[in-house]
Amino acid sequence: MNLLALKSIFQRKKSHIVLGIVGEINAGKTTLANRMGMDLANQTIGNVSEVPHETREIAKLENCILDANGHGRLNLTIVDTPGIANAVDYRVFMERYGMTKAESIQRAKEATMGVIKAIEALEMIDVAIVVVDSARPPFNQVNWMVIGSLRSKNIPIIVCANKVDLPDADPQLVLDTFRDQVAAVIPISALYGDNMDQLYNLIGSLV
């Protein structure tokens, strides 16, 4: 799907869209959701932590108003989703993050349910932002599964190659990997706000 296809889906000039932020764990989804929430509604959406699976429930922020450079005003509902993983091992929380066994098992259970909720959330969104950590190799099953699921539902996809502020970031590799599968690939730093205007202009073109 290319940018022309993305725009053609919204040729009826929608003024409100549900924008889902999806992807693997610790790619920076909630950081991006909070950045957009502060920029567009002066509110954050969720907590951010280095511990995987901090987001385990769907979080929504409504009435995020995007003034899109001559395109008009777009009312967004931003949906932040739990990170998707192939498996959740409770021992990781114990060994790396110092949680008790009981805490680790409970977090793993909640995280597993969160994966299910994230997949179910694909049914409610109009446009998807797939957040990819550009400092990690993008060739993993989760990224391809998420993009494949979205494509099967004809949901327009924007890939954000996040964490370009890190020294190991390779947004070009993310672009080369996904450019033929999605509408656009945009390199960003959700933490520092790099290239957010480019992302907003693309979303605004849907109006």
Number of strands: 6
Describe the strand arrangement of the main beta sheet, using strand numbers: 2-3-1-4-5-6
CATH topology label: Rossmann fold
Spans where pLDDT lies below 50 across 5 or more residues: none
Structural class: alpha/beta
Give the total of domains.
1
Give the overall form: globular
The total count of helices amounts to 7
- How much strand content do the residues show? 15-25%
Major beta-sheet overview: 6 strands, mixed
Tell me the Rg in angstroms.
Answer: 17 Å
The name of the CATH superfamily reads P-loop containing nucleotide triphosphate hydrolases
The CATH architecture can be given as: 3-Layer(aba) Sandwich
Helix content: 25-40%
Q: Mean of the pLDDT scores?
A: 90
**Overall CATH class:** Alpha Beta
Cα separation of the termini: 18 Å
SSE ordering: HEHEEHHEHEHEH
What does this structure look like?
The protein is an alpha/beta fold and 207 residues long. The protein has helices at 3-9, 29-41, 90-97, 101-121, 141-152, 171-178, 196-204, and strands at 16-23, 59-67, 73-80, 127-133, 157-162, 184-187. It is built from 7 helices and 6 strands. The two termini are 18 Å apart. The protein has a 6-stranded mixed beta sheet, sandwiched between helices. The chain has one domain: 3-Layer(aba) Sandwich (Rossmann fold).
